[in-house]
Write a structure and sequence with these properties.
Shape: globular
Order of helices and strands: EEEEEEEEEEE
Helix content: under 10%
Structural class: mainly beta
Number of helices: 0
């Protein structure tokens, strides 16, 4: 079973940056690692995904050019560098894993989830 633990959330002002980390342990032979977010009163949306095997990435239009997903060489850590943060980026951010190809931003394809880390962006 895969265990995922997120860290790095916090409160920043508009235009600031944060780097989220996701540590994976257990049976980690799943190709896709994704970041999702859920704002209060809204559904969960895919933000970014990466293939652990070959490193290809996929981003939501709302974060393209501002967020970067990456992984370490061992594939045990996944990161989300978030720049030029906006108040609409405020949400609980979740790390997820899926044994699929290609790596989509559809939460229904992911079956391992972390507990989440809160990101709050103020004016």
């Amino acid at each position: 079973q895969v265990q995922l633990v997120e860290s790095g959330g916090g409160s920043v002002q508009t235009g600031g940056s944060l780097r989220l980390s996701c540590a994976a342990s257990g049976y980690i032979y799943k190709n896709c690692m994704g970041w999702f977010r859920q704002a209060d009163g809204k559904g969960r949306e895919g933000v970014a995904a990466i293939s652990r095997l070959i490193g290809t990435t996929n981003y939501a239009d709302s974060v393209k050019g501002r967020f970067t997903i990456s992984r370490d060489n061992a594939g045990n850590m996944v990161y989300l560098q978030m720049n030029v943060l906006k108040p609409e980026d405020t949400a609980m951010y979740y790390c997820a894993a899926a044994d699929r190809w290609p790596c989509s931003l559809d939460e229904r394809e992911y079956n391992n989830w972390g507990q989440g880390t809160q990101v709050t962006v103020s004016q």
